[in-house]
Amino acid sequence: MLIRDFLATGAPSISFEFFPPKSDEAAAQLERTIVELGALEPAFVSVTWGAGGSEREKTIDIVTRIKRETGIEAMAHLTCVGARRGELGAILTRLEAAGVENVLALRGDPPRGQAEFTPVEGGFRYAAELVAFIREAHGPRLCVGGAAYPEKHIECGNPAVDLNNLKRKADAGLDFLITQLFFDNRHYWEFVERARAAGIKIPIVPGIMPITNAAQVERFTVSCGAALPFKLAAELDRRRQDPRAVMQLGIAHATSQCIDLLTAGAPGIHFYTLNRSTASREIFTALKVMGLTGDQRTETVSLQGGVS
Fold it and tell me: Any idea where the domains of the chain sit in the sequence?
């Protein structure tokens, strides 16, 4: 199913993001997470994209087998990093042939050790170029999502410039947007208001990452430019030496965020799971009790064959 068609129903879209594992142990963990979160019948799941060839193959393998073997709608991330136009075209053809109809088109982060993003010869510099390329080659057969940054992209110093860049990307052919993580819903609602005023009319799905580790979330906020509200940061620091207490705080805060977002009309929630199921599963359960999850899909089949 095309994600844009699900979003058009008006039902809340609950989805989960995974990333390709780097070890056998991590692969086993991801398999368990897919099974546990798949049982919640999400609208879709997404799989992130690595810059290296082996990581790309893992993404293609995971996303196609989720789609084929579980019945869960799966979306592949696709970035401009280290890839020429022809390579990206071949990957898109492979994905479509495997029944993957949804793609998240991203520029991608600069490779490790590079301060700035530099496209390879024959590649794309901006996500808007990748979106236009997908639309030219595949038309409406593929549903194309993109990323949005409520607190602006970390590389852009001017939020107005960042919004103009987003408008160009949307106009190139996006069907929906998923935001970077944030911890204060005010950032999301103010961003949506600015986007609508700029003429961006497609659905904007908020991305939520439940806090499960203090040091980890602090690294993420530095790398992506998302701010921790002072009261949350202070409480996190107070619980720093108690992993269970940190997890409880993270789940409680994210649950509160999701309730507020969905009751106020957000089109869904996209959970950044970090390949773990506990926090997202508990939040989903709370939302379901409140009647905020809707009917995500109609059929679930158990995963076979693993994800390594």
Answer: 3-289
- What letters, b where the CB count within 10 A reaches 16 and e where it falls short, cover 177-193? bbbbbbbbbebbbebbe
- Burial (CB count <10 Å: 0-12, 13-18, 19+), residue 113: exposed
Torsion of CA 39, 45, 51, 52, to 10 degrees: 40
Please name the residues in contact with 156: beta carbons below 8 A apart, sequence gap of 6 or more: 162, 165
Q: Is 197 exposed, middle or buried (0-12, 13-18, 19+ CB in 10 A)?
A: exposed
Comparing 49 with 51, which gets the higher pLDDT? Answer: 49
- Residue 265: count of CB within 10 angstroms of its CB: 10
> Is the Cβ–Cβ distance between 294 and 11 less than 8 Å?
yes
* pTM of the entire predicted model: 0.93
249 contacts: CB under 8 Å, gap ≥ 6:
211, 232, 235, 236, 239
Mean of all residue pLDDT scores within the chain: 91
Interacting residues of 137 by C-beta distance below 8 A, sequence separation 6+: 89, 92
d(CA 218, CA 228): 8
CATH number listed for the domain at residues 3-289: 3.20.20.220
What pLDDT digit, counting tens, does each position of 182-205 carry?
A: 999 999 999 999 999 999 999 999
Active-site position among 17, 31, 73, 151 = 17
Say whether 17 is catalytic.
Answer: yes
Better pLDDT: 29 or 153: 29
Spatial contact of 3 and 13, defined as CB atoms under 8 Å apart: yes
Question: What are the φ/ψ torsions at residue 148 (nearest 5 degrees)?
Answer: -135, 155
